[in-house]
Design goal:
Blueprint: E1 4-11, E2 15-17, E3 35-36, E4 44-45, H1 47-59, E5 60-66, H2 67-72, E6 86-90, E7 105-108, H3 111-122, E8 126-130, H4 133-140, E9 146-152, E10 160-161, E11 177-180, E12 185-190
Length: 193
């Protein structure tokens, strides 16, 4: 069974977006380098960031997001982001009106059911869980194996927290990986069981 990884870019003060769901400069590292990260050529990163990020992206089978992220991204136009095979959306609401039922998106109520469905769909590959409210719920439920974060040198001051509303102490190992990119620090921690 593949690992469940909670992931996002994050400010040094722990936010994945400001109070109006805008990431601000959190993704600037994805366009500030000279090495293409994807086939579009729109994403260019430093060599160190490429060598860290590309293998991880290639290992992802399914991404789990909340309905807020899905709506903000306008459902990615029915095409999962970054070449991921499937997206599982944690929501109690139905698909949007006119949604293509054949798109590889799965609408599931509750984080435990969403992770179970994502594991089925991943076929042994990584299940990525977007950090934030849903990621924090998955983390608090003890379903996350690894925490990955791309720490960007900015202080947002307030907004959407990386761990959502987690309000209890949880210990992590490591960090197991520390990679310095251009204007980003890539960190990976295993979750202590």
């Amino acid at each position: 069974m593949g690992r469940v990884v909670m992931y996002s870019s994050v400010s040094v003060d722990g936010f994945v977006a400001d109070g109006e769901d805008r990431p601000g400069p959190l993704f600037d590292w994805l366009t500030g380098g000279d090495v293409p990260l994807d086939d579009s050529g729109a994403l260019t990163v430093s060599r160190a960031s490429y060598e860290h990020t590309r293998p991880y992206w290639d290992s992802i089978g399914v991404t789990v997001v909340g309905r807020r992220v899905f709506d903000l991204a306008d459902g990615w136009g029915g095409v999962p982001p970054s070449g991921v095979g499937h997206v599982v959306v944690v929501t109690r609401r139905p698909e949007p009106d006119g949604w293509d039922a054949g798109a590889p998106f799965h609408f599931v109520a509750g984080v435990e059911a969403a992770v179970a469905r994502a594991r089925e769909l991943a076929g042994g590959r990584v299940v990525e869980v977007a950090a934030g409210d849903v990621g924090g719920q998955v983390f608090a439920a003890g379903l996350v194996d690894e925490v990955r974060m791309d720490v960007v040198p900015v202080v947002l001051g307030s907004g959407r927290r990386y761990f959502g509303s987690v309000d209890a102490q949880h210990l992590l190992e490591g960090p197991d990986v520390v990679v310095r990119g251009d204007r980003v620090l890539h960190l990976c921690y295993r979750v202590r069981r």
